[in-house]
Amino acid sequence: MTETTVSVPAYVQEALLIVAQEQGFVRDHFSTEYELGSKSGDGYIGLIVRARFVSAGRPSLSVICKFPPEDPQQRKRFNAMLLFEREIFIYQRILPAFEEIQLQHGVTRRDETYFGSYPKCYHAYCDAERGEAVLILEDLVAPQRPPMKLLDQYIPVDYEHVRVLMIALGKLNACSFALKHHRPELFDEIRQLSDVLSIVLDTEQTKPLTPRNCQLAASAFDPQKEPTRHRELLNLAQSMWPRTGAHIRGERAEPYAALNHGDCWTNNVMFGYDADGRVNDVCLFDWQMARYGSPALDYTLFIFLCGELELRREKLDSLVTEFYNAFSTSLAQLGGDPEKALPRVELEKQFVQFGRLALAMGTYALPNFAQLPAEICENPAVYQTDKRLQHYYTVMRELVKDVDQFEKIN
C-alpha cells in the first residue's frame, strides 16, 4: 500500500485493506491512493477521504472513507463518537433490514417501489471506548458507476429535483413502517434514538450561535412596526434546542412516527440524471442525525429551507401527493396497510404540528445560504446596505410569514 500525505489512522488502513480484498484485490499486488474528500477547515466531527485501489490489469475502485478526528478532545467537543455510532447503526442494522424486508416481499432494484437511495456500505466499525470508528462507502462520483451530482447549496432547488426526493422519502417511510410491522424489536431500537440534532446544536461550541442567529433574524423585522415577530425571534433563543427537541420528539408523533434521515438538506443529497439530463435518481447520505419522529419533518425542512419559494406556496400539495403515493404503493407491496399505518389526513396534521422546526433550523441555515460573514451576523446594524444582508432579510421574512401556519414551539 502506498504512503500518502493524507493522514489515515492504522485501523482505518486495515479496514480499507479488508474491503480491497473483499472486492478482489490481492494483498501486496495493489496500491491505495488517497485524497481529501472534505474541504480544508472541515473535519471537526469527522474526516472524509477518498481511497482508490489500483492494480495492474483490472479497473480501479474508488471508495469514500469517513472516520472521527484522532484528537480525543476534539471528538468530545463535537460529539463525534455519538454521531458515528448513530450513522453506523443505520448502515449496519437498519438499511440492511430494509433490504431484507423488500427482498422477502419480492421487491428488487428493478421495481419502481424499491428503496435503495443511499450509498452502498462496504465496511462499518465503531469502538467508542477506543475513539475509533470508520465507514467505507460507495463513491457516488466514481467512474465505475452512473455519476451523481451535488447541487449548489446557494441556489434554491427546483420542483423536479424535490419531486424525485419526495418519492424517495415516501419509500423510506414505507420501509420504516414495514419494519415496525415485521421486525418490531428492531423498530423499538429506532424508537429509542435521541434527537442528536438538538444535542449537537446545544454544545459549548455551538450554543453561542443561537442568540446571535436569533438576534440576526429578529433584525429583519422593525420592532416598532412588527413587534410580535421581532419579539418571537428574540424569545426563540431561550433554550431553543432543548425546547425544539422536546417539540419534535417522536412520542408526540405516535402512532405515526418513523425513521427520519434527520439532516435532509442540499449538501446531504445527490441526484442522478438520464441521457437527456432529466433528474431520475437521488441518494441520501450523512445519516448521522437520523432520529425517530414525524414522517413530515424531513420533507418540510427540505422544502422550506432548500426549495424554491413557489414550492411551499403553490406546489406543496403536489409534492406531498408524490410522497404519499410512493409511501402507499411501497408499503402495500411490503405487506402493510398505508391508510391504517399513516392516513394522509394525519400526515397533514403532523405537517402543521411539527413544521415550525423549519424556523429554528432556518436561523442557522439561512445566514449560510446568504453567505453572510461573521461580522455581519454579529453586528447587522452596521451593514444594513449590504446586498447579502438584504437578501437574507427577504428570505427570512418570507420564511417567518410561511411558518405562521405551524404550531408554536413552547
TrEMBL record:
Signal peptide bounds: none
Domain annotation CHK kinase-like: ranges: 135-333
Regions that span the bilayer: none
InterPro entries: CHK_kinase-like (IPR015897), EcKL (IPR004119), Kinase-like_dom_sf (IPR011009)
SUPFAM superfamilies the UniProt entry points to: Protein kinase-like (PK-like) (SSF56112)
Superkingdom assignment: Eukaryota
PANTHER family from the UniProt entry: CHK KINASE-LIKE DOMAIN-CONTAINING PROTEIN, PROTEIN KINASE-LIKE DOMAIN-CONTAINING
Name of the protein in its database record: CHK domain-containing protein
